[in-house]
Amino acid sequence: MPPLILLVDDDLLIRSLGKELLEHLGYQVEVAQDGPEALEIFRRLGGVDLVILDFYLPGRDGLQVLQDLKALDAQVRVLVASGFFPAEEAARIQEMGAAGLIYKPYRVAELEARIRLVLQGKSGF
User: Fold this and answer.
1) What's the predicted TM-score (pTM) here?
2) Is residue 21 within 8 Å of residue 108, measured between CB atoms?
3) How large is the greatest C-alpha to C-alpha distance in the chain, in angstroms?
């Protein structure tokens, strides 16, 4: 069974293209448009192998959703995604237990490499 990835992004185009790209790379993919939907899917599935979480979400931002996911499963692997990370935010994301960072727009080789690292239990920073 291929690893299951939950892709969380408020941008419909990123969700649809990201899902297609991840499936092309051989992963099972669920998508969510915001934090509450992501948490509902995570609970329903009983967890996932990896969450790719947009940093800038409406309502509950990526850091809050990261905290919520960690509260549900302290071992959850989360790759936080954004077009830009201020240095202090990148440090906070790591301190809060994220497995790594990925920049948007996604580059296939970088995305694939980060996912592999994180799924192997290595740092994606």
Assistant:
1) 0.96
2) yes
3) 38
Helix (H, G, I), strand (E, B) or coil at 102: strand
Both tokens of 111, joined, read 């995305």
Distance CA 121, CA 117 (A): 7
User: Which domains are delineated in the chain?
Assistant: 1-54+73-87 (3.40.50.2300)
- Two tokens, residue 68: 């919520």
Distances from the Cα of 80 to the Cαs of 1, 13, 20, 59, 101, in angstroms?
Answer: 24, 18, 19, 17, 5
Token pair belonging to 57: 């979400």
Residue 110 confidence (pLDDT) above 90:
yes
Strand-pairing partners, residue 100, are 79, 124
